[in-house]
Amino acid sequence: MNEFGGTGAMVLGTVASAVVFLLLALALLKPLGWVSAFSIAGFLWAITVIGLVTLTPLDAVDLAIPEDARMATCSTDIGGPAPDGFWIFESGQRTLNTALFIPAGALLVLSVARWRAGWILTPLGLVALAVYSAVIEKTQLEVARIDRACDVTDIVDNVTGAAFGVGLGLVLILVFQPWRHKHRKRRSRAGY
User: Fold this and answer.
1) Neighbours of 119 (CB within 10 A)
2) What is the pTM of this model?
3) Helix 34-55 and helix 118-142, axial crossing angle in degrees, nearest 10
């Protein structure tokens, strides 16, 4: 019996969810304009990818934490015991944890920038991303089958990445100006 897990499952889930959120973006395109439509769908996709990368069982990956080596509590040792990380991020898992949340932070800002409430929704969204990170770590602690370890350092790195993303998003809203990309209703030929 094959178990669901490893990088193959992460990639499959990422691609499948990309298709779903692309369809959502296309559905939102007409009422919201392209910047907001793709930002909202992209934000939701980024959140999904974060969940896939952090909660998919690691049976086939060398980062799996064996059950007998798993800690009973969340590590509060800032900076450790993070392993080296995936091959694609040579600088280690801390860089991966930070980079993973940057798109979510940037897309959060772009998603809400078209509305005046964006100034309230952005900080609330940043707090929600921090809570999401904490929930992921708690899940990694409680669910032994996914072979993960809970580490407070991951939360710090995730929130740092989300904050960098929000900063990037603030720059991107000046470039893309989502409030200007509204759907314009076509006037009928009768002049109504």
Assistant:
1) 10
2) 0.82
3) 20
Separation between Cα atoms, residue 183 and residue 142, nearest integer Å:
46
> What are the tokens at 189?
């030929």
Record the tokens describing residue 163, joined without a space: 């904050």
Q: How many C-beta atoms lie closer than 10 Å to residue 127's C-beta?
A: 12
Q: For residue 51, give the nearest of 136, 171, 178 by alpha carbon.
A: 136
Tokens matching residue 118: 């964006």
- Tens of pLDDT, residue by residue over 111-126, are 999 999 999 999 999 9
Asked whether 35 and 181 are in contact (CB, 8 A), the reply is yes
3-state secondary structure of 151: strand
As a whole number of angstroms, the distance between CA 65 and CA 71 comes to: 9
